[in-house]
Amino acid sequence: MSPSSSSKDTQDPKRERSRVAQREYRKRHASKFHSLKDENRRLRNALKKIDQVASQRARHDRELQAALVEAREVAGIEDDNSSALVRAPSPSQRTVSPARPPSARVSFNSQSAFFSAAGSVNYMNAHQRGPGQQIWLDTDRLVRTYEAPTDAAQYLGDNLFTFAGALYWACTRNTVSLWQAKQLALMGKAARTESNLDRLFNHSKHLRDHDFLVSLALTRLEYYQKGYIHLPPTANQAQWGQILPDLSKKIEQDYAERGEALEWWKTPHEVEEFVKRHLEPEELVELQALIEGRGTGAALAKYTPLVDVLVQSFVCFGDGPRWNILWVSMLVGGWRTNQQDEAQAQAQAQVVE
Fold this sequence. Notes:
This protein is mainly alpha-helical and 353 residues long. 63% of the residues lie in helices and 2% in strands.
C-alpha cells in the first residue's frame, strides 16, 4: 500500500465525522429556529387576542391604548377590522386622564377593623386575589405586574378569608391609620387619643425609620386593593431585595443580644391556631361567617371585643405583625370569662322573668 493511499484512508474518517457533526448542528439549529418561530407566532396571536378584547376599554383609557399600540408594533401585528382599537395620539396630543379608583377598593370604615376588611369584599370572587391569579383580571395591569411582598402573599388568595388573613390586613390598615393620626398631631390637628405608632416599633432599635415602615404597609394595601404596586423598579428592588431581609434578621439578633426569646412572639397564623383551640365548633362557624361577611349582628357583638384588641395590640417585626402568646392567652381567657358571665346573667334574667 502506497503512503498516499494510507494517508487518504486516515483522513476520510475525520472528514466524515466533521460532515456528520456539521449536519447535526444544522439540524439542531433548524429545530431551535422552528421552535422559536412557533413560540413567536403563538405570542403574537395571544397579543392579538388581548388587543381585540381590550379594544373597547382602551377607547376610554389613553394609557392602555398607548401600551397596546406599542405592544402591537413590537409584535408586528397589523391593524385589521377585527380590532376596534383607535391609534393612540402622539405624545404632544395626549392628555392626562384622572386616576381611576381600583375596581375592588376595600373600605375599612365599619365598626370592627377586623371584620370590615373581609366583609367589604365578595367572598366568591376574592379567591382570585392570589398573587398568581389576578394579573389578567384588569387590562390596566398589563404593564404594572409586580410580585406580591412575601409576607403579604401568604394572606391572599385562599388565605384571605381566614382568621389569620383578616388579622394581618386589619393590622396593616391600623398601622397606616396610626401614622396618619400622628401626622395630624404633628400639624396641630385633632388626632385619636389612642394613637400610638411608637408602640409598634419601639421594641427594637432597628425599627426607627417609621416613615419607611409605614410605606411598606401602604404598598401592601395597594397590592391588596389593586393587584399590583405602583413603584419604580429600582425602589422596589432596593426596599424588598436588600432592606427587608436584613431587617428581620437584625431584629432577631437584637432580641438574642438582650436575652429575649422570640418563641413567645407569634405570627397571625399561630395566633389563629391558638384562638381556634379555645373556641367551640359552633363558634368557629360563627367566626368564619363573620370573616366572610355573612355573620349576624349578635355574632359581631360577641367577637368584636376579642379581635379588635388584637388589631390594636400587635408589634411590628419587619416581616409582619406579632403578638406575645402569654398576652394572647390572657386576652382569650378574659374574653371567655366575660362570655360566660354574660351567658349566666342572661340565664338568670330569664329565670326571674
